[in-house]
Structure formats: structure tokens, C-alpha cells
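I am writing to request your help with a piece of structural work I have in hand. Here, with my thanks, is the record as I have it:
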Amino acid sequence: MKKKTFCPLDCFDSCAIVAQVEDGKAVKLYGDKDHPITNGFLCPKGYKLLEKVYSKERITTPLLRVKNEFHQISWNQALDMIAEQIKDILKRHNSSSILYYSGDGYEGYLRNVERLFFDYLGGATYSEGSLCWGAGLFAQKMDFGNSLCHSPFDIFNSNWIVLWGRNALWTNLHLFYFVHMAKKQGKKVVVIDIYPTETFKIADIGLVVNPGSDSYLAYGAIKYIIENGKEDREFIEKYSVGFEKVKDIANRLTYEEIERNCGVKKEVIETLANVYVQRPVSTFIGYGPQRYTNGVNTIRTIDYLVAISGNVGIKGGGSNFAHRFTKNIASVFKDDFRAVNKRFYNRAKLGEYLKDQQNPPIEMVYISAGNPVSQCPDSDLVFRELQKRFVVVVDMFLTATTQASTIILPAASFLEKEDVFVPNMWHDYIGVSEKVIENIGESKSEVEIINQLAKRLDLDFPIKSEKEWVECVKTHLEKALNIKFDKHFVRAAKMDVPWEDKVFLTKSKKFEFENEKMGVAVPSTDEERVLKNQLRLVTIHSQKTLHSQEFFERRPVAIFNIEDAKRLGIGNGDKVLLYNGCGGFVVEAVLRRDVKRGYIIVEEGFQNQKIETINSCIFSKTAEMDSQAAFNSNFVFVKKVTT
């Protein structure tokens, strides 16, 4: 028997999956050949999902932590304890004394029923800001009014494809496939990153830029385009505001200053500029360039380059960062009228918020689809603060965060529930997933858990089954998007070329080089006073994991430039401690010649048995407007250790 579902991972591709079921057990997962994006194959992590579902390490019964040891309890005991805790909090404070943390460990739409539950409770302390893409979203809101992508198939209309800070082979495999097919048709590819990633193998031009300096590279190309009269005057004069200020900034820049900051020679910058004027050029921006304190500014300057070169609103063009085509559609799972006590914390500053908030204090934390101890900055502080409170974690596995929990509730996997999947990172194919197998052990879905809690609290809450919620969401989306779910997926936005009419969602209805909130983006770096012997810590996404969800065995390694390592007395394979005033983490040194000096590269998501994570070394800095965590604007000392 074949069942249809969707990949639950926080990923650009949002793949359609076919599950082969025999005697009630899923025995194989593969990509749906009928889905235009999936094309019948999955990434390595997707194929490993079945092992996760049937893993012997799964939590299959509720657990209660007593003196740092976990004991099995019944669902009735667990839910009764949670309900009593909520009732006690409501007697003494109000519902905002409960902090709700929803991560990106599961991308099904029905998980948002938890938010509706807390709204009905009177509102909780909810998250704002972002850990991964908020700066870029904010930037494109300033420039375009929203962040929208061209159809994946529009890439075949391009002359050049630019992958800017997007290691597609590891993080967006189907885009890599599209680029590969486009190359067969004669399209050319530029790859820009802070070191030669595996995606460089597809590049006609590979360009390595200093971390946090992409805005200088963008402005260098802008300067050359303007100096040579190759800017798109029609777009600039008819459909934009603020260009003259950008022009003035570019004119004042010297190529020496640009080269010094971004580490790219003038002739290479000129080559990049000449690529952009060979329009149409499609640009795909990754989430790396905006993981700095100047992240918003950086993405805006890349948008500027795309606009000035005439690549906005044309076939084969675009500044593709995210695809927020549902942004203005009301959520089924929100009730702001009931949430009278809601307040917000910045996700990048969770530890600080828990430490400082007193009015009313946070007494309970409910965590679902997330692992904040591993993923948030200053993870040691997050762990210490969670330990002081009544913490409920809904998860499939023991994680760094569960070690600070009071109660762990076993979560159902994506194969054990019905759901709707709404992608918003690259393409617009919304999917409806079937329940593939019966729940393993005593695991429950978010809908089942919330229904039982609502009953215990006598809330006037809409008790619905998963199937009923799926139909409710489908009806809502069909009306809002004018679509029809006649099979298990449907194309929603049907927007091949955003901004083709040159009408933008900004206040001026034009592309805004100058925005009233943030002015004009300027070339900048995030440099602060770096102490002697400190190196920048750059954390990157891995091919083997999705944030802290491990799919393959890996070891914590740090990639060093050979000369930096020699200066610090570090050899290949040495164990080294990365540390600063925030915390420390031990990794294995890997030396490479093709990594520039001054920084080290570590894959994100590591957590060891001592509940130490690489984020122990990361201060809770943020990009402009507190839009997201500035993971890569952190610096560490390095010390060789003996084990």
C-alpha cells in the first residue's frame, strides 16, 4: 500500500513523499515523481526519516524528571500535572506567566493549534524575532514590501544564476538539481560564499568573500555598473525611490576600500558586475549572509544590486530569499481577541528574557518542535534558566532541552498524523499528508495533546480531530488563495514572476532604496574590537543534520586556515577548546588552505552528553531591529586541550 505525505523538516524543498506500507509498517520512503519539485528523489536526510520514526531511542511514554532522573508516568498523570500547574499560575498571575516556545523541528501546519490553545487561555508569552532568517525577511520587507520568490522553473529563463551564500547541494538539493539542468541548457552559474563549499563544483565563477562583508561586494558591483552607465534607468526612474543616495554612496567608495573589506579584487568585482548586466540574472540568497549584526543591511544591498542591474520583475530574474506568499492570510490558529495577556520575547535572547522578566514572572515554559538549549544563543544560560521552572517539552527524542524539562510528552512523528504543509521558503506547492502508520507507543500529536489539556481546563476551545482541522485549513486556504485541493498537493500562489507589474507592497508602492524606517543601506561590516588571538566563529548548516536533528553520525570539527592554526600551535586532528566570556566547546581541528584567515567554521547543532553545545560560545547578539540572532558576529579564543 502507498500513502502520501510530506517531509516535516525545516527546509527549502518541502518534498512530497510516498510511503510504502506493508502489514501496517512503513518500509520505504521515496520522492513523489508526480510532484514537480521533488522529481522522485529526496535528500539524504529525507531518506533517513524512516530510521528516526522507528528508532529505539524514541520517547514512547510520558516522562517525569525527578532529581535529574526520568521516570515513566501515564498520560493522565502528565496532563493532570500540567493542567494543575496552569490553574495555579492563573490564580496567582495571568496566562502571560507561561512562555510558549515553538521551534522549527516540525513544519506541519496543525502544530499551530498550540498557539490557539494559549490564545484561548488568555494569551501567553510568545516569540518574535528569529534564529535563522528574520534579518533577510525584514530587509526585503523594507525594499519590496514582502519576500517573494520566482517559480523554480523560471530559472530556465535566466542567462546567469547566482547562488549567494546558499550551499544548495547541502541545504536546497532540488534547487541544485534545477541549476544542474539549467547548466545543461547553457546557463552560467556564480557561487559566492565565505569558503569554497561543495556547491562550488557547479560554478562557472566561484567567489570567496570575507564573512560579514557581502555589502561591500554588492556595492562594488553597483559602483562599477553606475560608472559604466549600465544601470536600468527605466526601472530606477519609474519604479524606485532613493536611488540618488545609493549612487552618492557608491561614488564616494574607492575600490581599495572595497577590496580591503570584502577581500575580493577589483577585477573580480567587475566580472560580477558584468554578470548582472547580462540579464536576466536570477539570484538565490542563502541564510548565511544575514547571520551578522549587519544582516538586514547586507540583504538590502544585494537587493539593490539586483534592482539597479534591471533584474526585478522580469522573467529569469529576481532576488530570491524566501517565499512568503501566505503572509497576508489570516491564520486559522490565532485568536487575538481572546489573547488579552499576550506579550513577546525575542527568540535570540531567550536566556536573558527568562533571567530578567519579573512582571509577571515566567513560571512555566511549554516547548514544542524545538530544542532551544541547543539552538538559541547563550545556550548555557538558557539551560540554567529553564531548570528553575516547570518545563513541558513535546519531543520524539531526549535532547539538550529535555534535560532541563519537568515533563516530556512523546510526540507523534509525521507518519503518525494527518496534516497540511505550507512551504514559504522557495516554492508554493501546499501539500496534504495522510496518516501513514498507527502511533508508535503512546505518542500523541499536537492536536490530541491540546484537546486533552483544553478539556481538563474546561476551556471553551474548538475540540476537533486532526481530520476535521485538516478540512478546516483546506477550506480556509482554498478561499484565501482561490485554489482547489483535488489531490494531495496544489500550487498555491501561481506567481511565476513576482513584481512583474512593478507595483510593490511598500508605502510608496515602489522599490525603496531609501526606507523611512531604516534609510539607505550602506556598505558595512560587523567588525568590533577583536582581542588578540581571537577568531571569528562561523556556524554553518550541515549536510548530515537539520539544526539539532541528527541523521548521520558526525563529530564536532572546526575548520581552520593552516596559517592561523600554525600561529596558535594547533595541528590537524588536535582537540581544541573554543571559548569566550559566554562559554566554551571542545572540537577537533581540521586544517585547510582554501579557508581565509581570521575565522573558523563549525557546523551548527552539536550537543554532547554534558549538555554542552556549540552555542555555548555564542552571545545573544542580534541583527538590526532585533530581527534575528547574529550567530556569526561572535569571536572565540582557541586553546589546545589534552584528553
